[in-house]
């Protein structure tokens, strides 16, 4: 925080102010509506009326109220500094209180820290604790009751342990009550949310797992929201209603790209702290249709060709955990399949160069902020928007771009899809909440060139700066695979076996057939011909987006 900003916040009306002990010296501590700040007092110089006075060069130190988790009376004899474990000497008074707060550390990670203040008597101590906690209770974006689903088989199967050891204690500290369900089978969370859970009583849903688990949960929430609002999601181009309930992700999966792309890390404690602080980050969601039938929502990767084949292959290797993706990735790379088809897309207005602009989405992102946020619009504004949309569509037909080609991969992402394997993600400049997706077309190329493209996802080189790769920022796209002349019975039954269901009228897909299949956030879609449309800010997460700088800007000392 800049000194000028501090000076503005400092002028907020004071709620409580006292001289008490902090780190073995006297400090002036003040609480106002936005922060808690203190200044050490010069013990050597005394005022006429024997008050200790603040030395001129003393530094102001502060904590924003938004970052404070809770204040508690410190138990007698418990004057240990939580971080260092070092005992603080209590100069005069044995009454004290601890302020727990969330602090941003290196690499976008947040940690829970604590400060101790010592008071002259118990009532002063109680007054401080009460006043700080009263102010915290006014922060209405903080959740009080959460519904938690744990997938015990995600990633390295550590979900339950991660939740119990690293997350539950933080929720308890923040007095958040939880109902925890450890899932017993795929779609357990979906069915529970749809049929049993009394969603109204919760301030959010938390999923402990990976992108697949997150996808399961948002499907239930979005189905429910559309049903309650009378919206038919089968109608392509239908405006969908954003989901009220926020979702928190405690990363425990194999890819964890939604968590990584919205917090900058896949760290369970960081995610837990974003939940505790009540942070909010909307994200775009795309809906995938086949003719007039809704198939699925997508928030991470909708991938045909390389990623679709890789996912289909890796599903049979689930027992291997996250390593299944590496093995199937190498296999699909060596297979080097390419697929013919036609991609048509509607570019986002005026944004053509943006996927390559290297600006990225950094919180607070003005591009996402200025994108239409239906939640904040009045009824009249919604009508106006609907009219604008239909005007745009009338003139849209000519705006559709059509590309017929042979592709190694077709990837569509609503967000960057940054993840530990690829810290920039599939489209490093994609925005979390701007109502657009980036469509990446990887045309037929040699194995070596494709490898160059893939490797660039793992370093700072530009994966789009290759002649066979094109990227477009779009609002909608369609894909039609080239019809194969012969569809053998054997191909059809192989397809049904792979996706575990017989799809009437769908051509066989996957490696070894003329069509690939779409991986939609880790689920295989039965149809190759799809229509996709982005919905701006349809779901909100307990997250803050990725902030500037990788190390602590949260220094509380000015
Ligand atoms: N108890 C369970 N047993 C088996 N499958 C489950 C269970 N609970 C949830 N699932 C399913 O497991 C799938 C994958 O889970 P999840 O996404 O959490 O882990 P992952 O696949 O290892 O990680 P990622 O999706 O990040 O690659 C989800 O689609 C979910 O439907
Ligand atoms: C030579 C080195 C090449 C390395 C290339 C790395 C490129 C990584 C980009 C990863 C983008 C992940 C997008 C998210 C996809 C999830 O919805 C999905 C289901 O969980 N996971 C995967 O498909 C699993 C995706 C796993 C990719 C390896
Ligand atoms: Ca977007």
Automatic annotation (TrEMBL):
Residues 1-137 form the PH domain. It comes from the Eukaryota. GO terms for biological process: ceramide metabolic process. One of its GO terms (cellular component) is membrane. GO terms for molecular function: ceramide kinase activity. SUPFAM superfamilies: NAD kinase/diacylglycerol kinase-like (SSF111331). InterPro entries: ATP-NAD_kinase_N (IPR017438), CERK_C (IPR045363), CERK_PH (IPR057465), Diacylglycerol_kinase_cat_dom (IPR001206), Lipid_Phosphate_FormReg (IPR050187), NAD/diacylglycerol_kinase_sf (IPR016064), PH_domain (IPR001849). Pfam families: CERK_C, DAGK_cat, PH_CERK. Residues 141-292 form the DAGKc domain. PANTHER family: CERAMIDE KINASE (PTHR12358:SF25), SPHINGOSINE KINASE (PTHR12358). This is DAGKc domain-containing protein. It comes from Esox lucius.
